[in-house]
């Protein structure tokens, strides 16, 4: 970082920033009264990015081209459709290209640990105590540096030099390097009293898309909003709303690492998504036990689900009844596989 870029980014704030548990008027308290989430560690984040886990999550997402490229009301004029005469080979080639684009379109947002060095004190210079009543923010405005790694430090009026907190980092980054769709002040929709009605209305994809745009994935506000939304989806069992979107994979990963398999497993059995149940159990055991499930015929797969219900689920009775009902409804297939 050059001295020129450091001091040219000098940013003086009258009355200073106040380090608070409210960021742009948003409380960190959660809408949900459920138990605390398991901490997202570096090891857990690395597991999310592992190829084997990503493969399972993509399969569970069920990427549908029609839904991935559906019209959405985002304030922009839709593209004018183009009609062409094409051969069968050209159509097949184009369909393959569209599938690749659809997979990119539903690329999952990352699950990463919270940034932990916010507000960390670097040094205290008592010789400049009382030099000014304002705080001074110094920012490295060198191009090519990500907002996450950009150096932002604050000199307090009492001589303390510290790293910027989340509020200060967001404000300074958005002032010098504004990102399209990201607001300087966090939208009020992320406040608990406004977030709850959106959740009750089932606007899950809108909330999650907006959170991805507004916050960095290592921001405490991002974790709060996204994980609260995941809990609400799990509570209402409206997983189909996020199917074939970029958010279903992280949701299922969240349920797996927090050991909340009951509702999704029930959803799979009630909607006859048997293979999804097997894939989710495989994901769950891979995350929590580091094991791969070896699957045999259909009877073996039923046994896997039955054992999983007995050992990992809390609503054993309801899930066992749902599994028995599914087996009875599919008794012909079971007999053929034996």
Helix-strand blueprint:
Blueprint: H1 3-8, E1 11-13, H2 42-49, H3 51-61, H4 65-68, H5 88-105, E2 121-124, E3 135-139, E4 152-155, E5 160-163, H6 166-176, H7 192-200, H8 204-214, H9 220-236, H10 248-257, H11 262-270, H12 274-288, H13 298-312, H14 316-329, H15 331-337
Antiparallel strand pairs: 1-3, 2-5, 3-4, 4-5
Protein name: Ribosomal protein S22, mitochondrial
Pfam families: MRP-S22 (PF10245)
Organism: Cinara cedri
Describe the 3D structure:
With 338 residues, the protein is mainly α. The chain has a domain at 191-337. Helix content is 49%, strand content 6%. It contains 15 helices and five strands. The protein has helices at residues 3-8, 42-49, 51-61, 65-68, 88-105, 166-176, 192-200, 204-214, 220-236, 248-257, 262-270, 274-288, 298-312, 316-329, 331-337, and strands at residues 11-13, 121-124, 135-139, 152-155, 160-163. Strands 1-3-4-5-2 form a five-stranded antiparallel sheet. A hairpin with a 4-residue loop joins β4 and β5 (160-163). This is Ribosomal protein S22, mitochondrial. GO terms for molecular function: structural constituent of ribosome.
């Amino acid at each position: 970082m050059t001295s020129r870029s450091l001091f040219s980014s000098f940013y003086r704030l009258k009355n200073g920033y106040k380090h608070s548990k409210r960021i742009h008027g948003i409380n960190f308290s959660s809408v949900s009264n459920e138990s605390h989430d398991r901490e997202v560690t570096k090891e857990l984040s690395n597991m999310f990015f592992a190829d084997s886990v990503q493969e399972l999550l993509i399969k569970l997402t069920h990427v549908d081209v029609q839904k991935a490229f559906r019209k959405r009301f985002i304030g922009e004029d839709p593209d004018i459709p183009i009609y062409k005469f094409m051969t069968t080979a050209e159509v097949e080639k184009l369909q393959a290209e569209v599938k690749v684009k659809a997979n990119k379109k539903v690329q999952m947002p990352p699950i990463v640990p919270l940034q932990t060095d916010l507000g960390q004190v670097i040094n205290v210079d008592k010789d400049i105590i009382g030099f000014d009543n304002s705080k001074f923010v110094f920012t490295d405005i060198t191009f090519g540096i990500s907002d996450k790694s950009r150096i932002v430090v604050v000199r307090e009026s009492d001589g303390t030099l510290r790293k910027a907190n989340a509020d200060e980092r967001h404000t300074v980054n958005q002032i010098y390097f504004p990102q399209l769709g990201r607001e300087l002040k966090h939208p009020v929709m992320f406040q608990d009293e406004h977030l709850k009605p959106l959740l009750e209305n089932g606007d899950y994809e809108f909330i999650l898309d907006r959170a991805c745009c507004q916050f960095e994935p290592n921001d405490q506000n991002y974790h709060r909003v996204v994980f609260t939304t995941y809990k609400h989806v799990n509570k209402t069992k409206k997983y189909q709303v996020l199917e074939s979107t970029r958010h279903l994979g992280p949701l299922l990963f969240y349920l797996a690492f927090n050991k909340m398999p009951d509702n999704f497993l029930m959803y799979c059995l009630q909607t006859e998504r048997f293979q999804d149940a097997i894939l989710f159990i495989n994901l769950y055991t891979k995350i929590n036990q580091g094991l791969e499930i070896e699957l045999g015929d259909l009877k073996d797969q039923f046994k896997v689900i039955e054992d999983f219900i007995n050992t990992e689920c809390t609503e054993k009775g309801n899930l066992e009844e749902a599994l028995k009902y599914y087996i009875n409804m599919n008794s012909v297939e079971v007999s053929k596989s034996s």
